[in-house]
C-alpha cells in the first residue's frame, strides 16, 4: 500500500488523528503527505501549515546553534558548564564536570526527566556511558543564552528559522499558530490539553510543520551553516546506545547496542551512515530519519501517542534500507 492510501487509512479508522509528513529524495524536496484532522478542537484537515509539537526533534536544532557558537569561539564543547553559567545541580561534585559535549551526546549522567520525588543528581561520572538525559539540556540552554547574549528563542530564530524560511516554527507558542495547530491525543484517542509555552525549552518545546522541519534537514544534509570539519564532527559516533527498549539507562542495566550511537545531538545508525531523532510528548509523536550518503530523508509529526507506529510502512518507502533505530526505539505496530 502506498503512503497516501496508508495514511488515509490509519487516520480514518481511529488509531491516529492526524499526520504531517515530508520527504527528501537525493537532497531535494520530494513529496509531502497530510492526512487526518487537527484534533477535537478543530476538525479541519491537517495541511502544510498545521503546527505540531516536535518534542525532542528540538534537540538537533539546538545542537546546530551550539556548534555555530563553537565555531565562533563563544562556546567550548569541553568546558564545564558551571564555568560558563554557574551551578545547575547543587551539592553534586560530579555535575561540575558536565560539558556541552556531555549534554549533546547524552553522557552527562543526569536523568531524562526531573521528577518531583527525586532530587536532580548525576547517576554516573559524566562521559562514562550513554543514558538519554533530556534534563541536562536546560543547563546547556543557560550556557547558550549566556555566550550567545540572547534568549534561546531569539538565537534559534536568527540562526535557523529565519535563514531557512521556517515561518511556522518557534520554540514557544505564537498566537499566529492559533488558527491552524494540532492537538495531541493519547493511546485511546483522549485529547490532551494544548500547552502554550511562553518560554523556550531546549529539550522539547519546538512547534513546527513537516515542510519547515524538512527545510532544516535539507540544510543539514547539504552542510549549510557549519564548516566542513564541524559538520563532519556533528555526526561522528561518540558513544554507543544501550539495548533494552528505554533510551534512559541510568544504572547500566542493558548491554551496549553495536548498531546505534550518539553524535552531537543526533542518533546515529553506524553502518548505515544515517542520522535520526524521535519526539515523544503527551499526545504527540515525531520522527526524523536521514541517509547522509543518499540524502534521502523523512520527517513526520502525528497528534497521537501511536504516531511512531507508522514507521514500519513509511520508512521503507522513503529512506530505503535496514534501519536499526526502529528496533532500538521499540516501535510497535498499529
UniProtKB/TrEMBL annotation:
* Domain Beta-lactamase-related: from-to ranges: 13-307
Superkingdom per UniProt = Bacteria
User: Which Pfam families does the UniProt record give?
Assistant: Beta-lactamase (PF00144)
Q: Mind telling me which InterPro entries this protein's record contains? A: Beta-lactam-related, Beta-lactam/transpept-like, Diverse_Enzym_Activities
| SUPFAM superfamilies to which the protein is assigned, alphabetical | beta-lactamase/transpeptidase-like
Q: Which PANTHER family match?
A: BETA-LACTAMASE-RELATED (PTHR43283), PTHR43283:SF18
* Descriptive protein name: Penicillin-binding protein PbpX
Q: Which gene encodes it?
A: pbpX
Amino acid at each position: 500500500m502506498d503512503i497516501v492510501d496508508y495514511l488515509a487509512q490509519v487516520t480514518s479508522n481511529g488509531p491516529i488523528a492526524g499526520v504531517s509528513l515530508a520527504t527528501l529524495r537525493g537532497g531535494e524536496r520530494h513529496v509531502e503527505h497530510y492526512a487526518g484532522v487537527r484534533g477535537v478542537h478543530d476538525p479541519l484537515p491537517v495541511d502544510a501549515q498545521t503546527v505540531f509539537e516536535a518534542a525532542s526533534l528540538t534537540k538537533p536544532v539546538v545542537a546546530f546553534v551550539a556548534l555555530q557558537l563553537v565555531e565562533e569561539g563563544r562556546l567550548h564543547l569541553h568546558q564545564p558548564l558551571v564555568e560558563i553559567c554557574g551551578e545547575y545541580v547543587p551539592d553534586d561534585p560530579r555535575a561540575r564536570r558536565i560539558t556541552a559535549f556531555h549534554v549533546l551526546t547524552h553522557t552527562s549522567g543526569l536523568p531524562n526527566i526531573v521528577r518531583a520525588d527525586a532530587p536532580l543528581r548525576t547517576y554516573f561520572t559524566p562521559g562514562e556511558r550513554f543514558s538519554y538525559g533530556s534534563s541536562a539540556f536546560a543547563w546547556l540552554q543557560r550556557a547558550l543564552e549566556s555566550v550567545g547574549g540572547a534568549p534561546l528563542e531569539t538565537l534559534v530564530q536568527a540562526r535557523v528559522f529565519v535563514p531557512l524560511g521556517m515561518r511556522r516554527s518557534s520554540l514557544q507558542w505564537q498566537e499566529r499558530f492559533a488558527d491552524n495547530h494540532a492537538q495531541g491525543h493519547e493511546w485511546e484517542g483522549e485529547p490532551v490539553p494544548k500547552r502554550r509555552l511562553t518560554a523556550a525549552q531546549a529539550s522539547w518545546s519546538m512547534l513546527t510543520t513537516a515542510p519547515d522541519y524538512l527545510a532544516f534537514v535539507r540544510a543539514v544534509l547539504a552542510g549549510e551553516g557549519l564548516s566542513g570539519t564541524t559538520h563532519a564532527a556533528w555526526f561522528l559516533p561518540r558513544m554507543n546506545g544501550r539495548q533494552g527498549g528505554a533510551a534512559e539507562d541510568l544504572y547500566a542495566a542493558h548491554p551496549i547496542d553495536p548498531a546505534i550511537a550518539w553524535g552531537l545531538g543526533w542518533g546515529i545508525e553506524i553502518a548505515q551512515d544515517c542520522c535520526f531523532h524521535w519526539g515523544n510528548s503527551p499526545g504527540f509523536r515525531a520522527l526524523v530519519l536521514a541517509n547522509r550518503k543518499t540524502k534521502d530523508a523523512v520527517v513526520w509529526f502525528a497528534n497521537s501517542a501511536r504516531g511512531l507506529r507508522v514507521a514500519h510502512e513509511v520508512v521503507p518507502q522513503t529512506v530505503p534500507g535496514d534501519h536499526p533505530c526502529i528496533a532500538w526505539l521499540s516501535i510497535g505496530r498499529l
